[in-house]
Design goal:
The protein is mainly alpha-helical. Helix 2 crosses helix 3. It is rod-shaped, with a radius of gyration of 31 Å.
């Protein structure tokens, strides 16, 4: 009856050292991954705060502090087409056209 041969002591020591190095490498990679995620999150939150402070609505229109009229103008510009109703008088049409133009110019670096 044969018993399985025990690995030589130096092979066990080499494996233990290899396993220790592997665990250390994995820990380093996890820490690096976590720090990258943390920095990205903090950067993104800072950008969001800066955009919110500047009343920038973006395409989602999810900033509750933006006035509804401005939200409607922006929505028309990015999701539909601005329309000047025939029911409006000429002064009202001109005022609405100027509001669309101002909203567009304020949201771009177009001069």
């Amino acid at each position: 009856h044969n018993t399985p041969a025990m690995p030589p002591a130096d092979a066990t020591a080499r494996y233990a050292e290899y396993a220790k190095q592997e665990v250390s490498f994995i820990e380093t990679e996890l820490k690096d991954w976590f720090l990258q995620r943390r920095f990205a999150m903090e950067r993104n939150l800072a950008l969001k705060k800066a955009l919110d402070d500047g009343n920038f609505t973006g395409l989602s229109l999810s900033n509750p502090s933006v006035p509804p009229a401005q939200m409607a103008l922006w929505s028309d510009l990015v999701q539909g087409k601005p329309e000047l109703d025939d029911t409006l008088g000429s002064n009202a049409k001109q005022m609405k056209a100027e509001m669309y133009t101002k909203t567009f110019k304020d949201s771009t670096d177009f001069d």
